[in-house]
Please model this.
Amino acid sequence: MSTRLQQEVWALDRCSGCGVCVAACSKGVLYWNGEQHPLLEERTKTLGLTRIRLRACEVCEKFCELSCPRLVDWTPIEARSMVSARSSGVIHSGAPNDVIQALLVAARSADLIDGVVMLDMDRYTLQPVARVASTVHEIVNSVGMQYLWAPVLSALNEAIFERELTRLAVVGPPCVAEGARRMMNAEHDRLWPYRDAIRLTISTFCTGMYTPDMVADLLERGKGIDRRQIRSLTTSISDSALTVTQWDGAELTIPLTEVEPFTRRGCGSCDDYLGESADIAVGTMGALAKHAAVIARTAVGQLFVQNARNFGLLETVAEVDEEALAAAKAAKDRRARAQAFDEFRILMLDALSDPAKRSRVNKLFAGLYGAAQTPAGKKEVGYVSCGGC
Amino acid sequence: MSDAKLGIFICDCGGAISSVLDTACLETRARGLPNVAFAQRLNYSCLPDGAETITAACADHGLDRVVVAGCTARLMSRHLQRSLPVAGDLVELADIREGCAWVHGDQPAQATAKALDVIAMAAARAGLGQARQPVSGEVAPAALVIGGGVAGMTAALTLANAGQPVVLVERAAALGGALTKAQRRNGWGGRIEQVSRHPNIAVALNSQVSDVSGTVGRYTVSLGDKQFDVGAIIVATGEPLAAQPGAGILAHLLDLRQDQQGYFPEVRYRLRPEGYAERGIYVCGAAHHPTDPREAEIEAISAAFKALRHLRAGQVVNQAPVARVDPALCTGCANCVEPCPFDAIAMLQRAEAVDLAQIDPLLCTGCGNCVVVCPVKAISQPIDSDAQVLAQIEAAVRTADSRSADRRVRSTNGAGSEPVRILVFGCEWSGHAAAELAGANKLSYPVETRLIRLRCSARFDPLHILWALYNGADGVFLGACAPGDCHYIDGNRYAQERIATLSKLLAANGFDPRRLRLAWITPDDPRDFVRQVSGFTELVAKL
Model:
């Protein structure tokens, strides 16, 4: 059993819910049940009247550990270009979702991709879903990400193995980009189908994903908004607010503190606001008015932005408030400290049985509790013990 | 390493200590502790000549922190902190009498070794100590009395006669409350007259308090669209509260506890931590239990005088070690808001990327719950700071050379007849108090224990416990108040949850969770403490 996933991610409420482990699991024993993290399926076999528990999750290469984005430290990919952009095809809009749609439509039209795995909203149930879209029509018809959580990457298998798509774009919050990035960097050959199929990752700026019951509990019951009236939800780091746009054009701003209780628990320890592992990151922060900031972090990202511009679906202005973006990035350092404390706890637990980890514990301890502490070596000398004289 | 200059003074206590412990040895050994500039034996530190000797030594050697090794902190710290020339919080007491000499009299060598650890722990703590800064706020010079019955009128008159401006709010169209016609004829009617004519009393009939905001010392009260500031609020709403629709709202506005019948029961003063700012909210008359007019009158006068003392002081002072937020570290996660038992923390919303936690320094009681909750340790306290507690832990468990996790690994392989080392964290209201009482009663408990005193079990930090185990403690025993007895409302409940989680984590990592135990300790039952600690020590020794 993957103890690392259970102990270091699930138990500490760090699961982002990206869903990549569910897709990667070779035994298919991980599943979702509206939980904060995937569940491990218990399989039994009946022989006569005897029910035998099958050891389904064993003898495995632990693809979940190879894919989980929370088990590695992420170094941000430096931005290659930052622009303010808005879509300029049929829809003129600076909303991040419309800009992403423009990028995707242009890419599909140029056959740079043959499908998209994305976070979308079901038009009938109005619940968030992980969707595979493979035609321009399907892409245009998607509503886009509404900051309501669904395990995006769990749909990878449908895209790659059932629909046999070979050139995928993955769209989601930063954790999804990280999950996809782990697949793209996979060294294990069993993960190569994923590695080869994912061509592009697009991430939105993100302050946290909400559980789907946020719509029912907060917006419907709390604010009296009919869910059928909701056109889009956008969060803004700079205003600390969630903006609900309705189909009649009315806008309602709700402070993030009110929405906070509906945030997925795993988002609390996330330190990536700006999609730092995605090829392209899109969000309102730092952009000109009625534009979205588009950050291309890789050559691939730059190519896709250029492609959308060539198609006339995207207008860009090379003007971005880099200070605002830098400020958001600075917030990352604070969260990194939170993770360091988590790590400190895990390491101390490990070191109780494994003395080899002691040097790392001591190092982390000095870093976290500051220079007020004396170095470990000195302490041993400093304290005296009673010789029983 | 800090540049503190420590002086250590070891009491013989007229032989009460030196008859068991080798204080001469302690004196020599204490000189070898980090940051110690001076160490000396004294007969009695608590007598005037003892204080003079310490004061002189402070001047001669430029000492800025003092450790007095003698009796328990509870007994002498106030006295010593007042009589010595360093700031109160920089005087530490190392309990080598109740904590060593009196409880381990039959094992003098081990008791002396323990005393040295106790001194080292106090020295480590003092070396990192900071003086707390009392926080003060102004008191608005006016009072609000809610309810115009006997209690309300009496309270208002008492305050008004003492010269305080009073606003008396009555829901009904006339004063008098539940007084009967007969009662009004028989003398009580005059009181109504007096109140309505008094120049210091503004009576608001047909009114209800619609909102109360602000904090200790200055509450802003809204009556309809009128707003004014008061320093004290007296609740005298009378009897049939459960039936009154406004009672629940009032309880909510003033943060009063309501019992099942709708009365506002008295705060259990015995359970109130000392030194924190007076709230300035008082309940009297039939609002907190059924009374007749006479009784209501007496209660009202009592409440009014409490309010008067509060108002006349002109300022509220909070002596508690108030927790502070480092804005450079706060991630705005808001984890600390809900666990604060006194609603002292709110999130300050900012235009930049993250919100900041803000602690109202007058409401904070210094229980330390937020310090433990904070995932980045952006919140800190001047007393029992992380640095201090961690240094104490190290001093307690790291002294002997053989103590290390390696040794434990060896001993699990069968070698283990070596003495164990038990760390005891005690809430100062229960676990630690019972330990002190055990000492005073000379009830012996295992000499393997090292005690750390904390303000509340809410301050039992899993990271500290892990650090202790990691550094070689064989067991950690935590003494907390029983459910319902926490002086900080429900610090012990938080402790219980945290320890349960930590035990699970330890078990999952192959570490025997029986080495960690949280026990409910009654402060006045030292025998129970001795039983529990002895049982735990025996168990750990067997593992």
